[in-house]
Amino acid sequence: xxxxxxxxxxxxxWSPTGGGGISTYLKEKKKFFQENTEHRLLQIVPGPEDxxxxxxxxxxxxxxxxxxxxxxxxxxxxxxxxxxxxxxxYQPDIIESLCPWVLPWIAIRHRRRYPNTALVAxxxxxxxxxxxxxxxxxxxxxxPASFFRNVAYFYAWMTYHRFDRVYTLNQEARGMLGGLGYHxxxxxxxxxxxxxxxxxxxxxxxRAEMGLPDNGGPLLIYAGRLDxxxxxxxxxxxxxxxxxxxxxxxxxxxxxxxREVLMEExxxxxxxxxxxxxxxxxxxxxxxxxxxxxxxxxxETFGISVLEAQASGLPVVGVASGAMPERVPPGTGYLxxxxxxxxMARGVVEVWRDDYAGRRQRSxxxxxxxxxxxxxxxxxxxxxxxxxxxxxDARMARGAWLGPVKRALxxx
Length: 412
Fold this sequence. Notes:
The protein has 15 helices and 16 strands. It is of the alpha/beta class. The protein has two domains: 6-191 and 372-409, Rossmann fold (3-Layer(aba) Sandwich); 199-368, Rossmann fold, CATH 3.40.50.2000. A hairpin with a 2-residue loop joins strand 4 (51-55) and strand 5 (58-64). Helix 4 packs antiparallel against helix 5 (142-160).
């Protein structure tokens, strides 16, 4: 594999201050490429205006895009020709598509003109479930939602069969793609920085800083978007089910369209809403100063926030769905049914009162055994990108062989 390739990250929707897995991934990837490779990196993302920022071997290309309703600071690229023009101008060797909806097809369109381009897709969200079925079920019930989920899986099949390599973030998603007939896949383990996320950053004054009482009970914490996809509403309902004598309090650290609603529902309860934390060190301090990480997310494909919480010494209480069973094995926390605040409350009580110290130590050990970001990007380059380039070469060879045959037969 050449040492001076131009790699392009293609991202439909993101926020530079909104947190989330893609934001962390892009920032860590830029740092790794600058410090550890000779490759150039082009990152195409939505922004407030068209703007190109060059820093060393990194080109950060913002495409002017509108804000996403109900998701503060998130933008969505709706100018496909602007993206196509950037790809034509820079002609990357590898395009890595990080979102499933429209931009993958811009990459496919670009590859038709420049067939030497290798296409890699990150299947980072189980969107037929998370963004189609769950939403449609609330609007129209199970059967119509199931129909549209199947349509979304057909769309996934049409899209990803055109890529040279697809990586997922967990084995369940890889198996799903296999069920769709696509097998040139890998599982990319994302990273955690255990120097930043560590129990050593615990601050006894954090609870008081959040305006929460210390009644001898656990401090629960969630860090992420406060919206329907993340099922943040389950957390307030769960908290209401906890025994008052337990003395628990909770921090919901994040922003999103449900924040104001949840703040209203949580009036009179020891729940703090400090907003989204842009400083990673401050987030690490918040996690290390808490006792249990809670999440109602049912379609997590990896769960960077879960791994960061475990590295901070927190057992996790979540749901037995998506990637959570891989992230939270027995003995490190509790996983219950989806959308069941009563079961989640039981899980919090169980984790706090039954071998809490043991779960904490096993969570730390699990995080310590996981990838660091350099390992993630070494795998990305040496395994996923290498497989994509090999598939591209095979595709080009087939094209070179089939071209004269098609012309002889007058077949387009």
